[in-house]
Amino acid sequence: MSVSLTRQARLAQSLSVARRSAFRCQHFAALAAQTRHEPRSQDSAPVAGPSRADASTASPSSAQPAAQQDETAQEPFARVQSYLAAVNESGIEPTLRDLDACKPSARPPLHSPKYIQQYNDLINTLCRSFTKQQLRKFLVEALGPSKHCATNRKKTDYAESILDQLWKWPTLGELERAKKDRTEVVTKVLPVTASELFLFLGRDGSDLLRISQDYNVHISLRQKPLGLSVEGSRASVRELTEHLLAVKQTFVEEWFTLPSPMPIPTDMVPRISRLAQAYLENISASPGTVRICAKNSESLDVAKRLASRVVQEIVESSRTPVLAHLPPGTATHAEQPLVMFPHTYALYPYLSPRPLPLTMNTSGTFRLRRVGEWLKSGFEEDVESTGGLASEQGHVLTENDISVSLRDLATRALPESPRTTVTASLGHVLLTRVSKDQRATLVPPLTGDHPFGKIRKWIANHPVKMSFVPDLPNPLLSTAPRHQKALHRLVYHSLTSVPDETAPTADDPHVSIHRRKVIVLEATLAEPRGKSESDSVQDAFDSLQSPDEEARPSEKSPPEPSFQVVADTRCTAGVEADVNVLMPDRPMDLQLTMSCSADLPESQQPLALQKYSEDLSAFLSGSESHPEQPTPPLTIEHDGATYLLHSNGSVRQSVEVVSATGRPALRDVAYDSEKLTRALCESSLDLESNQKSMCCQVFCEDPSSEESWKRFLTDCDRLSLMTRRSTAGVFKDEAFA
C-alpha cells in the first residue's frame, strides 16, 4: 500500500507538470490562431505569396494539426486524473510510513545555513506531497488531541509541527530565540530571605560559587532589598532561576524548643549554623525557641542537637565555681601590691593549636598570668620554695576572696556518696568577652598589669565568661603514645540539677557547687588479629567518624570497620560536680571533678541506650542490616529524670608516666609514687561537632586518706608545672600498664 501511495505522490507531481505543459501548448496555440485569423490592414502594402483565396483554402488544413497537438497535450493529464480518481475511489490513504519516507537520514548542524535551507525544502515537500487534512491526520495519530492538531491552523503550521514534534527539528523561530538567549546579556535580581541566602551560599560560599560556574553567570549580593543579582546570558539566567526555585522547594523549616528557657548567644548562632549547615534564628518573643531552616532533615537534626548541647553547656559552665590558687607570699586581698611582694598579673592572648570548644567566643580568648620580673629568670612558681599544692601553704580563694581547702571542698561536694573519686584535668581557664563583635582581637578587655585582687574584682563586675579548656602539658604533646585503647563514649547530663545540701551560710561561707546526674556508656573496641597496635587503634578511631558534608562521594560510604564492640559494654550512672582552679603563677590550670558512680545493669539501662548499643555492635561488625553509623538519642529517660546528650565521641586512651628526675625508668622497676606520676591521656573526636580535643588526668580514689590526697596534689604540681624547658622526663607506661 505504501508503494502505491508513493507512486500516487509521484503521479501527482507528474500531473502538475503535465498541466503546466498543456497550459503552455494551449497558450501558444491560441497565440498562433490569433495570428492566423488576424485581419490584414487595408493600408499595408501587398507582399509576395499566395493570393487571399489560396490562404482561405489553406486555413482548414493548417488548423487541423493544432487541434491534434492540443489532444496530445491533454492525454497524459487525463490519464493521471483517471488514476487519481481510481485511487480515491479505492479509499487508500497515506500513512506515517509514507510520511517518514520524506524524512532525511541526517540533520545538518542547527546553527548552519544549510539547516535553514533544508528546513524550508522539507516544508515545501510536505505541503506539495500531502493535503492539509492528511498532515493534520498524521499529527493526530502521533500526538493525539493537542494544540498542534487544531482545525483552524494553516497547512504550513501542520508541516512545521511535524518537523518539530515528530522529527525533532527545531523551528526557525526557536533557533532565532535560542541565538538571542545565547548572545544577549541580561541582569536579573532574585529576591531571597536571610535563611535562603545562607543555604544557597553553603560552606564559605562554595555552593553558590559552584552554581555560578556551572551556569556561567556572575552572582553578587544586593542588600536593600536582600537578593541575588545574576548577570549572564538570557538562557543561563533563566536556567539558574529555575534551578534555585527547585532547590528552594526542598528546604525544611521547624521551630524548636531548647531544653533551657534561654536564647542561644548571638556569637554562637553563626558557629552552630556553620557546623550544621542550617540557618538558626532566636525567636525574641519566645525565649528558648529557635527557628531552624535546613536543606534536609539530617541537617535539621544536627542543628537541634548542637543547639541543645550549647545551651546546656553554657548553663552548666555558668554554675561552675572558679577558685584561684596563689602561692604563699602573694598579696591576696589588697588591690595594690605590697612592696616586698611586687607580683602583678595581666590578661594575655591565648592562641590554641586546636579549635576551641563550641561554646566559646573565638573573637578573643585570654588567660590570666603573672607578669615576669626583670631581676628574675622565670615568672613561674618555684614549688621547691613554696611547697606547691601538696604543702597546702598557699591560698585557695573563692570569688569572694574567701580562703578554702581543696580537700574539704572535695569531700563535702558529694556528702551523701559513700565513696568519692576526685579527677584533676589539666588545661587552661580562659576568659572571653560577651560581645556581638566577631572580629578577632589581641587586645584584652582589661589592659595593663594589676594586682590579683583588682583583676578578680574587675571580672566580678564585668560581663565576661570563664571557661575551662582541657589540654596536654607541652612535653606530652611531642611524645608518641603506645598501648592505646580505643573507646566509643556517650555522656548524658541531667537537665535538672541535684539540690545542693551544702549551700553556703553566714557561719560556713564555703563554695556553692552545682551537682548533676550523669549516665556514661563506654564501648571498648577490641583489636583485630594480624594487625599492629598503631594500625588497630587508627582503624578503630576511623571506624566512628563524624559526618562531613564536604566529603567526596567515594568517601560517603561507611568505612569498613576492623573492630568489634566487646560484649560487656559498660554503662554507669552517678552524680558529679566540677570546680575550676585558676593558677596564674603556673603554665596550666586545673579542673577538679568529684564523682560517684556505679555500674548500671543492662536490664536497668534506658531502652534507647540498649537499642543504640545493639545497632553500634552490628555496624562495627559489618552487618548488612546496619550499613550506616547509628545516631545516639538526643535525650533519654531514667529514674524519673531527663538526660541530654553532653558528648558523643571516639576516644584514644593511653597511660603516660612522668618522671620528675628526667631519668627513664626500666620495665622491671617497681612503680614509685614519690618519683613517678601516672597520667591518663585521651585524644577525643566529637562526632557531633567534628572537633578534636586532648586531655590529661590524674585521679584520687580516696580523698579521705591523707597519703592518697597528698600524692594526688603532688601529681597535680608535677603536671601543671611542666613546660618545654622543664627537666621532667616522660616515658611510656610499659611496665605498669
Brief descriptors of the model:
737 residues; alpha+beta; Ribosomal Protein S8, Chain: A, domain 1; 8-stranded antiparallel β-barrel; 3-stranded antiparallel beta sheet; 20 helices; elongated; disordered N terminus; disordered C terminus
Can you offer a commentary on this structure?
With 737 residues, the protein is an alpha+beta fold. The chain has four domains: 94-179, no CATH class; 184-250, Ribosomal Protein S8, Chain: A, domain 1, CATH 3.30.1370; 253-319; 322-333 and 342-499 and 513-526 and 564-721, no CATH class. It has 20 helices and 21 strands. It has an eight-stranded antiparallel barrel with strand order 11-16-15-14-13-18-19-20, surrounded by four helices. Strands 1-3-2 form a three-stranded antiparallel beta sheet. A three-stranded antiparallel beta sheet has the order 4-6-5, sandwiched between helices. Strand 17 and strand 18 (641-659) form a beta hairpin. Residues 34-75, 526-563 are annotated as: Disordered. It comes from Lentinus brumalis. Residues 50-69 have a biased composition (Low complexity). Residues 97-168 form the SLS1 N-terminal domain.
